[in-house]
């Protein structure tokens, strides 16, 4: 029988999973076409898409830079970014191209660039109605903070099905995609923990999950770790993730750290602590990886404790929210067929 450390171990779990579809998804080339008038900022934006803000290195990914005259070549791209100079308002040629692309069903984000040069942001309101049905963003290609706040979430939304490829090939999107992956998995694990009911505490393990729960939660966590590695540009072999992230994600360790702090509350609080542990254990692993990526260092003991504390606070809050929202389980009313009144047989006389 597998023991606790086997079940809680992300790396052992990864070994068992078929990871090829995820790796292929992440490596499938994703093509941007950035289209706009001369000098609008296309090259500046393209450089920002590829630059890793942490290492200041750049990825190589296929991106088309197209002027308005060759705009029809944008049709080959997975996403068309139509770039506008926000200080102008004569977008006749842009509107024509936009209409053609829209008719052909292309994925388009309209981006008002050079907002830093616009004296009054309301100016763009005058032309906004031209881009009906598309996602519209604004900001400055020269300012990565403005891109992160406004353009990035709209592009991630437009390419929601291809998030891994997006983040892997274009570092500008890594923070947003990593955040989504961590939140989605932590939430999925919390919902799963809710669905399996109030925990009995397995005494030897001191965690509020039974072995079947542990298997599912750890599997989701393992997939999250692998996807994060792909999104953050690690090689596709899971062994490489072990080498890079192994000590960041100490095996099974995090579940226990988190659970230890909450497990005593189960008899009093019912299901909430269990849901909170499922959320927080997953969230903490994700955060540890994100920290490693951003700083190049693994978290110190104190840093890790801060991550737990934060994860637990979130976990409790999310648990309370999803428990309040979940439909209350009603006891199924079992109607028994009316049975004929039993005839009482006289015990047979012993022979
Ligand atoms: N103030 C400001 N300047 C910008 C912004 N984006 C780009 N620029 C500047 O605009 C100039 C043109 O930028 P590019 O990125 O070369 O524009 P482009 O569309 O590639 O130009 P062409 O390839 O010549 O058509 C450069 O000097 C950029 O620094 C912005 O958001 N704000
Ligand atoms: Mg250029």
Characterization of the model:
The protein is an alpha/beta fold. It has helices at about 5, 10-15, 20-25, 40-50, 90-105, 125-130, 145-160, 165-170, 175-195, 210-230, 240-245, 255-260, 265-270, 270-295, 300-325; strands at about 30-35, 65, 80-85, 110-115, 135-140. It folds into 2 domains: about 5-20 and about 170-325, no CATH class; about 30-160, P-loop containing nucleotide triphosphate hydrolases (Rossmann fold). Helix content is about 50%, strand content about 5%. The chain has a 5-stranded parallel beta sheet with strand order 2-1-3-4-5, sandwiched between helices. β4 (about 110-115), α6 (about 125-130) and β5 form a beta-alpha-beta unit. Guanosine-5'-triphosphate binds near residues 42, 44, 117 and 142.
What labels would you give this structure?
binds guanosine-5'-triphosphate; 351 residues; 2 domains; 15 helices; Rossmann fold; alpha/beta; binds magnesium ion
Give the count of structural domains.
2
Percent of residues in helical segments? 40-55%
Secondary-structure element order, as H and E?
A: HHHEHEEHEHEHHHHHHHHH
Query: What is the averaged pLDDT score?
Result: 82
For the sheet with most strands, the description reads: 5 strands, parallel
Give the number of DSSP strands: 5
Report strand %: 5-15%
What's the end-to-end separation, in Å?
53 Å
Counting helices, strands and paired strands, the structural category is alpha/beta
Uncertain segments: none
- Note the overall shape: elongated
Ligand catalogue:
guanosine-5'-triphosphate, magnesium ion
Number of helices: 15
| Integer-rounded radius of gyration | 27 Å
Provide the spatial order of strands within the biggest beta sheet: 2-1-3-4-5
């Amino acid at each position: 029988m597998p023991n606790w450390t086997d079940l809680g171990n992300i790396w052992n779990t990864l070994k068992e999973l078929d990871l090829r579809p995820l790796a292929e998804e992440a490596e499938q080339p994703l093509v941007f076409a950035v289209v706009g008038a001369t000098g609008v900022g296309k090259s500046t934006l393209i450089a920002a898409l590829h630059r890793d803000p942490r290492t200041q290195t750049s990825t190589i990914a296929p991106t088309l830079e197209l002027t308005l005259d060759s705009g029809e070549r944008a049709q080959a791209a997975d996403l068309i970014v139509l770039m506008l100079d926000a200080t102008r308002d004569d977008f006749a040629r842009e509107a024509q191209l936009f209409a053609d692309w829209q008719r052909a069903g292309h994925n388009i984000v309209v981006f008002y660039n050079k907002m830093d040069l616009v004296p009054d942001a309301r100016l763009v309101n005058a032309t906004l109605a031209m881009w009906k049905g598309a996602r519209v963003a604004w900001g400055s290609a020269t300012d990565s903070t403005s891109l992160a706040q406004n353009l990035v979430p709209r592009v991630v939304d437009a390419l929601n099905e291809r998030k891994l490829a997006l983040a892997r090939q274009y570092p500008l999107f890594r923070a947003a995609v990593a955040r989504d992956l961590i939140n989605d998995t932590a939430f999925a694990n919390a919902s799963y923990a809710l669905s399996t009911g109030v925990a009995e505490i397995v005494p030897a393990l001191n965690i509020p999950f039974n072995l079947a729960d542990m298997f599912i939660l750890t599997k989701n966590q393992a997939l999250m770790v692998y996807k994060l590695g792909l999104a953050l540009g690690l090689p596709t072999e899971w062994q490489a993730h072990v080498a890079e992230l192994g000590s960041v994600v100490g095996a099974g360790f995090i579940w226990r750290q988190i659970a230890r702090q909450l497990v005593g509350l189960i008899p009093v609080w019912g299901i909430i602590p269990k849901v909170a542990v499922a959320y927080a254990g997953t969230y903490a692993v994700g955060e540890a990886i994100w920290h490693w990526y951003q700083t190049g260092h693994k978290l110190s003991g104190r840093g890790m404790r801060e991550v737990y504390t934060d994860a637990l606070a979130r976990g409790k809050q999310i648990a309370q929210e999803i428990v309040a929202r979940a439909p209350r389980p009603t006891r199924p009313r079992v109607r028994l067929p009316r049975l004929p009144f039993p005839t009482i047989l006289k015990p047979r006389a012993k022979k």
